[in-house]
């Protein structure tokens, strides 16, 4: 079936590079004479695509032109806005979203988001909508892809912040606990722990890392070895970093401070890596449609951007690889 009109939305937590992806989807589609509507506020906007009188709600559905996406490749956040939709988690909501796709006469829907958002896309596929997924999340927690849009920028932001905390930690001869985002995944913690030269990274994938006695022994051992300060990166999925800092200080008598980096990791101008992948992935989302493919997700596998079946991708199982953690430990000797 020829593709005449598509919709594009961003969903879940925003991630730097989402705008570059929107730009690529819109421009590739328009270049190929495919109309594009931007759906604002993720699935919330799709669910509220129509007013009570049946007309399209322009607060949520907008026609995209090449100029709608001018000057956005360098901007963090998402011009289409985003939301976490509770209604989209229900079968009734999923039915309504699929119906709205049909009523909007969309031949395909491009969903840019993380695991939850793409699971929403899979529900639409089960209801007959042609969905193309793009992995957009700072967490890198999409099992089927080695890369997600926004991860690189978030890691660079966290790494830079850790460098600044290192300065003051060194001056005061303190132990610094830095909590980074990642939901149930420890990728941001591992990457910025390794690149920030941390002594330890506590990650949900390996419960052995979350051993406070060993951590305290490590800090004390490091003191004896001449390390006057320590940097410990804690993944959000481990949590309780403020309490942890108080307990460490109370037990071993070394001044310990916690910093939760929080939402600053979600913002900022995307790095070249995020802009590049977002642009390639956005282009590919439309290209696979032109090839007549349906229900794909664009992912990075073995370092290459490729398209795979969306539902199969969501069913892949991640096996934890301790290599990076082991390198971090070796380099912090
Ligand atoms: O998925 C991105 C993320 O920033 C996670 O790292 C974090 O757990 C979550 O979103 C926070 O979600 P919210 O924006 O709803 O507070």
Top keywords for this entry?
single chain, 333 residues, alpha/beta, five-stranded mixed β-sheet, four-stranded parallel β-sheet, 11 helices, 40% helix, binds 6-O-phosphono-beta-D-fructofuranose
Overview of the molecule:
By secondary structure, the chain is of the alpha/beta class. 40% of the residues lie in helices and 17% in strands. A five-stranded mixed sheet has the order 3-2-1-4-5, with helices on both faces. A four-stranded parallel sheet has the order 7-8-6-9, sandwiched between helices.
Give a concise summary:
With 333 residues, this protein is of the alpha/beta class. The chain is built from eleven helices and eleven strands.
Write the layout of secondary structure elements.
Elements: E1 5-10, H1 18-31, E2 35-39, H2 42-47, E3 61-63, H3 91-103, E4 108-113, H4 115-126, E5 131-135, H5 151-172, E6 175-180, H6 187-195, E7 200-202, H7 212-224, E8 230-235, H8 241-252, E9 256-260, H9 272-290, E10 296-301, E11 304-309, H10 310-314, H11 323-331
Parallel strand pairs: 1-2, 1-4, 4-5, 6-8, 6-9, 7-8
Antiparallel strand pairs: 2-3, 10-11
6-O-phosphono-beta-D-fructofuranose (F6P) binds next to loops.
Ligands in the model, by name, code or SMILES, are: 6-O-phosphono-beta-D-fructofuranose
Low-confidence stretches: none
How many strand elements?
Answer: 11
Mean pLDDT: 97
Structural class by secondary-structure content: alpha/beta
Helical residue percent band = 40-55%
Number of discrete helical segments = 11
Pattern of helices and strands: EHEHEHEHEHEHEHEHEHEEHH
**Tell me about the biggest sheet?**
5 strands, mixed
Task: Give the CA-based shape.
Answer: elongated
> Going across the major beta sheet, what is the strand order?
3-2-1-4-5
**What gap, in angstroms, lies between the N and C termini?**
60 Å
C-alpha-based Rg, rounded: 22 Å
């Amino acid at each position: 079936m020829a593709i005449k009109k598509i919709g594009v939305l961003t969903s879940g937590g925003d991630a730097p590079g989402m705008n570059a992806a929107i730009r690529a989807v819109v421009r590739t589609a328009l270049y190929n004479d495919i109309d594009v509507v931007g759906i604002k506020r993720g699935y919330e906007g799709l669910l509220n695509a129509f007013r009570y009188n049946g007309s399209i709600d322009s607060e949520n559905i907008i026609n995209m032109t090449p100029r709608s996406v001018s000057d956005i490749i360098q901007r963090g956040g998402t011009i289409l806005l985003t939301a976490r939709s509770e209604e989209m988690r229900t079968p009734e909501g999923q039915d309504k979203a699929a119906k709205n796709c049909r009523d909007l006469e969309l031949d395909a829907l491009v969903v840019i988001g993380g695991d939850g958002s793409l699971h929403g896309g899979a529900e639409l596929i089960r209801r007959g909508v042609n969905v193309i997924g793009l992995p957009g999340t700072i967490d890198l927690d999409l099992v089927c892809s080695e890369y997600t849009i926004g991860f690189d920028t978030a890691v660079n932001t966290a790494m830079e912040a850790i460098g600044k905390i290192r300065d003051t930690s060194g001056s005061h001869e303190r132990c610094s606990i830095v909590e980074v985002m990642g939901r149930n995944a420890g990728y941001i913690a591992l990457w910025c722990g390794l690149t920030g030269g941390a002594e330890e990274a506590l990650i949900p994938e390996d419960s052995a890392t979350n051993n406070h006695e060993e951590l305290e022994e490590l800090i004390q051992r490091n003191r004896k070895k001449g390390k006057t300060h320590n940097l410990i990166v804690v993944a959000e999925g481990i949590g309780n970093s403020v309490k942890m800092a108080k307990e460490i200080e109370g037990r071993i008598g070394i001044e310990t401070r916690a910093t939760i980096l929080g939402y600053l990791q979600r913002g900022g101008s995307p790095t070249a890596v995020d802009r590049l992948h977002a642009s390639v992935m956005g282009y590919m989302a439309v290209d696979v449609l032109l090839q007549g493919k349906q229900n794909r997700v664009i992912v990075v596998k073995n370092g290459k951007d490729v398209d795979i079946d969306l539902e199969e991708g969501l069913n892949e199982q991640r096996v934890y690889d301790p290599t990076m953690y082991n390198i971090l430990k070796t380099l912090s000797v």
